[in-house]
Specification:
The complex is a heterodimer of chains A (523) and B (370). Chain A is built from 18 helices and 22 strands. Chain A is of the alpha/beta class and 523 residues long. Chain A has two domains: 235 residues, 3-Layer(aba) Sandwich (Rossmann fold); 181 residues, 3-Layer(aba) Sandwich (Rossmann fold). In chain A, helix 14 runs parallel beside helix 15. The two termini of chain B are 17 Å apart. The radius of gyration of chain B is 22 Å and the shape is globular. Chain B has a domain of 252 residues: Orthogonal Bundle (ABC transporter involved in vitamin B12 uptake, BtuC). The longest helix of chain B has 30 residues. The chains are: A alpha/beta (523), B mainly alpha (370). At the A-B interface, helix 10, helix 11 and strand 18 of A face helix 9, helix 10 and helix 16 of B. Chain B: Its main location: membrane. Chain B: InterPro entries: ABC_transp_permease. Chain B: One of its GO terms (cellular component) is plasma membrane. Chain B: This is ABC transporter permease.
């Protein structure tokens, strides 16, 4: 990068405090025009705050910004858009019942006659779509489009408003590897046409794949800028966490014994009549980790809920630790726990915890009926407090304060609290959903080690994750789901990203079908 | 990104206090409009409610009623249920209390009748709340709608019973016969006279103590039992509660039974304590005001107690006010309405600015400490 090159966006000494929280400390950043710039950092490192400042949601306390060498001081997102900044949020801001065209025009209609602005928008949109390779069915209802296409609509929305600088927040979180590749191609094309792109992510591999430069944030401060070609995953991880991190835990050899989870022809039809789980059959043995891979929304959540006793199977059966659950003989979460099953739910905010509760209250969820936590009619607050305190210390949950509200812990510590709760009851079967979603790298390492050590202690572990890296790191066998059905199963030694990616799109590679030797190498 | 936090007392005490103050300021404008000096009016109200023993007695008598209906709404709130039916549940609870007094009261003294009336009044109120609860839990009928409907059904049912069954012959008033004197709940002044304390006569009776017991009960039940834990789980995060194996149907029914029971207790104070007969519309809107009491009291027994005291003050002080100035008695309703408006509906209006002001003033010291 030559120094003479003009900067698309330049931040100098940006500082932002929320009360006592110092979210951004003296941040300076220069993004050369027409490049892709990665911003990485753990949760709470201040990435989102910084982007919100650029996008005009927040005002910096100190510091200044320049766009194309001109001072830039947005007081709202309208200002940012007017200056050519566009943002694609992690959770799409789309009206699902509107068409693509209506979504793109929304808020940028000119004149009061909707028909006219729609007609002119359609022309402009088609022009954009062809020049950037962003083809979308303009008249389709957005809710009916696959996620990858919805994301394109978001990008088009930004471009339609004249964005020259595009900010993408965790853009690949919901995409299959193939869709992500496609997105990267689009980004390449945009860059070639002069658009500057900033990507916020925690996926180191993608940062390396697509960016020109990377900036790393830690605890609100910018800890370094590097050219992507001069760095590696290990190096970036070290910068993010501030110490050396093991990205891949050595899981050793599994020694599976008797089968503890047996799923036979399991079906589940939800209340609106949609078949969410279709004739699934598989088993998990004591002492092994079976990974369930798939793009989110392909039946994983329902499978976990079925196994956890939260929803009842429509047909088929589940045998958990020699207890049979079927439509005729349904179970409930209390009974399932009594069978020796621990369940770490996929979404700790929706299911695993209650944000309003104190840590010690959240810590007894699901086990609050146990005699150890009750004394006659009243709860034994002392026992609850002590049990929580002991395990917060043991599991390194910080701050180790049982009376602190759950919402005030960081994602990693919340997750550790949930995992501690479920593992400390010493279950024989462990259902693990997205154990490291929204968890910082330091905690990921620890959580992965714990999952593996519970496998080595003879538990049957079912791991559901949309992070392929996680599945390939931890699982001994991998089952891929598509549209509620099992596509196939691979040994994780035979699996690689392409194979899993194909399977996630419901294509079973020929050589695996016939039991031929895999050609792909392990990644 | 964790938000900066303000200490609990700012939201729990300062904010409601400022809201009440605002309500009083607007009331002051109203008084100026009707040519009454707001300061004089405030004096009259304060004098009337707390200035002399009888006034205090009346204030606490009203407070007792508000505690029961306020607690009823508060308990339901913890499960995320909006029990609008306190009015009807209190009314039907009154049927239970009244029947006990009319029958058992003939030959048993009050200290036997009272516990039985507690049980029967509670059961009647609970039963009236159970039907909407069951419909909500099993059939998905919204509890707000059903409890409102049940208020109307209760009113019609009671009117029918009073006219056709309970009204003695040869009278025109829609009320039951008077309970036997022996079954009357002792007044506080009678009770204290036993120990040699002289108090002015007022309707305040022993059920006030029972109301305080109920406050303690609710506190223990909600925060110190596994059932209260389950109720709060369902109220804060239903899907997490399901995950934890808490049965929604059972918890909704349990919560509403307790809520209806507390509302049913309302009749102990008014019927067994003061009126000594079942009268048409004896609940007089206390069931509805209970919603505002719970809102103001943040669904905590101590808050409910304080809010009940405030509403008791408004009720009694307002009565004195209308007596003194000859203004319409409904001025009380206007005052109540303003308090509800500012503390309930506009509860969050001032919150951001107060929190920000607090943080600006005190955040610096926190940070240095950190």
């Amino acid at each position: 990068m030559s120094q003479e090159q003009a900067y698309a966006i330049e931040l100098s000494h940006i500082d932002k405090k929320f009360g006592a929280v110092h979210a951004n400390r003296d941040i300076s950043l220069q993004v050369p025009k027409g490049t892709i710039h990665g911003i990485i950092g753990e949760n709470g490192a201040g990435k989102s705050t910084l982007m919100s400042i650029i996008y005009g949601f927040y005002k910096a306390d100190k510091g200044s910004m320049m766009i194309d060498g001109k001072p830039f001081l947005p007081s709202s997102s309208q200002d940012a858009i007017a200056s050519g900044v566009g943002m694609v949020h992690q959770h799409f801001m789309l009206v699902e019942t509107f068409t693509v065209l209506e979504n793109v025009v929304l808020g940028a209609e000119d004149g009061w006659k909707l028909n006219e602005s729609l007609a002119s928008a359609k022309l402009k949109l088609e022009e954009l779509a062809t020049s950037y390779g962003l083809e979308v069915p303009v008249d389709a209802i957005v809710g009916e489009l696959p996620v990858g296409l919805q994301q394109r609509v978001e990008i088009l929305k930004a471009l339609y408003r004249g964005a020259k600088i595009l900010i993408l927040d965790e853009p690949t979180g919901v995409l299959t590897p193939q869709e992500a590749d496609h997105l990267f191609k689009i980004l390449d094309k945009l860059r070639a046409q002069g658009t500057t792109i900033m990507i916020i992510t925690h996926k180191l591999r993608e940062v390396l794949a697509v960016t020109d430069n990377v900036s790393v944030m830690r605890q609100g401060a910018m800890v370094g800028h590097v050219a992507t070609k001069d760095t590696s995953q290990e190096h970036l991880a070290e910068m993010m966490v501030g110490r050396k991190v093991l990205l891949k835990v050595d899981r050793g050899q599994a020694a599976p014994k008797q089968s503890l989870i047996e799923v036979k022809d399991l079906c589940y039809v939800d209340s609106s009549g949609v078949e969410r789980v279709k004739k699934m059959s598989f088993s998990v043995r004591s002492g092994e980790i079976v990974g369930i891979a798939g793009v989110s929304g392909n039946g994983q959540s329902e499978l976990l809920s079925l196994l956890g006793g939260i929803i009842k199977p429509t047909s088929g059966e589940i045998v958990l630790n020699n207890n049979t659950i079927s439509a005729a003989n349904p179970s409930d979460p209390q009974l399932v726990r009594a069978m020796g099953v621990g369940h770490i739910p996929e979404d700790r905010h929706k299911m695993g915890l209650i944000n309003k509760f104190e840590a010690q209250e959240a810590y007894i969820m699901g086990y609050h009926q146990l005699p150890m936590y009750n004394k006659g009619l009243l709860q034994d607050k002392k026992a609850i407090n002590q049990s929580c305190q002991t395990n917060m210390d043991k599991w390194d949950v910080r701050p180790a304060d049982p009376t602190l509200k759950t919402a005030n812990f960081s994602g990693g510590n919340q997750q550790k609290l949930v995992i501690a709760r479920e593992m400390e009851q010493d279950p024989d079967v462990l259902l693990v959903g997205q154990p490291t979603r929204g968890v910082d790298i330091g905690a990921i390492e620890y959580i992965h080690q714990q999952v593996i050590s519970s496998r080595d202690a003879g538990k049957a572990v079912l791991l559901v994750s949309v992070e392929l890296d996680e599945i390939m790191n931890l699982a001994d066998r991998i089952i891929v789901l598509f549209d509620g059905a099992v596509v196939g199963e691979v040994n994780s030694d035979d699996a690689n990203e392409q194979i899993l990616g194909l399977m996630m799109a419901n294509i079973m590679p020929e050589h695996l079908k016939k039991g031929a030797k895999p050609q792909g190498e392990q990644s | 990104m964790s938000q900066a936090r303000v200490p609990a007392w700012v939201t729990v005490a300062l904010l409601p206090a400022i809201n009440v103050l605002l309500a009083f300021l607007v009331s002051a404008l109203l008084f100026i409009y009707i040519d009454i000096s707001p300061i004089d009016a405030a004096k009259v109200m304060w004098q009337g409610a707390f200035g002399y023993a009888e006034g205090i007695g009346y204030t606490l008598y009203y407070t007792t009623g508000f505690i029961f209906t306020g607690l009823a709404v508060a308990v339901a709130f913890h499960a995320g249920l909006f029990n609008i039916g306190g009015e009807g549940q209190a009314y039907i609870g009154g049927l239970g209390v009244g029947l006990v007094c009319l029958t058992l009261g003939e030959f048993a003294p009050w200290y036997i009748v009272f516990p039985v009336a507690i049980v029967v009044g509670g059961v009647f109120g609970a039963a009236w709340a159970f039907i909407p609860a069951y419909l909500q839990a099993k059939r998905g009928s919204h509890i707000v709608i059903t409890t409102i409907m049940f208020n109307f059904i209760a009113a019609s049912l009671m009117a029918y019973l009073l006219v056709e069954v309970l009204k003695p012959e040869n009278t025109m008033a829609t009320e039951s016969r008077v309970f036997a004197v022996g079954s009357w709940l002792p007044k506080m002044h009678e009770f204290f006279a036993l120990f040699g304390y002289e108090m002015s006569a007022s309707p305040l009776n022993l059920s006030f103590f029972f109301a305080l017991v109920c406050c303690v009960f609710v506190w223990l039940f909600i925060w110190h039992t596994r059932w209260g834990y389950e109720i709060r789980s369902v109220g804060s995060n239903p899907s997490a509660a399901t995950y934890a194996g808490i049965k929604y149907v059972r918890i909704v029914c349990l919560t509403m039974l307790v809520s209806g029971m507390l509302a049913g207790f309302f009749a102990l104070n008014v019927l067994q304590g003061e009126l000594h007969q079942i009268k048409l519309n004896f609940v007089e809107g206390f069931g509805f005001t209970g919603i505002a009491v719970a809102l103001m009291g943040r669904n905590h027994p101590i808050g409910v107690l304080l809010a009940s005291l405030l509403f008791g003050f408004l009720y009694q002080g307002g009565a004195e006010l209308s007596f003194e100035y000859g203004v319409d008695r409904n001025i009380v309703v206007v005052l109540q309405g303003l308090v509800i408006l500012f503390c309930g509906a506009l509860e969050h209006m001032l919150r951001p600015s107060i929190e920000n002001t607090y943080l600006k003033l005190f955040a610096k010291t926190n940070e240095e400490a950190a």
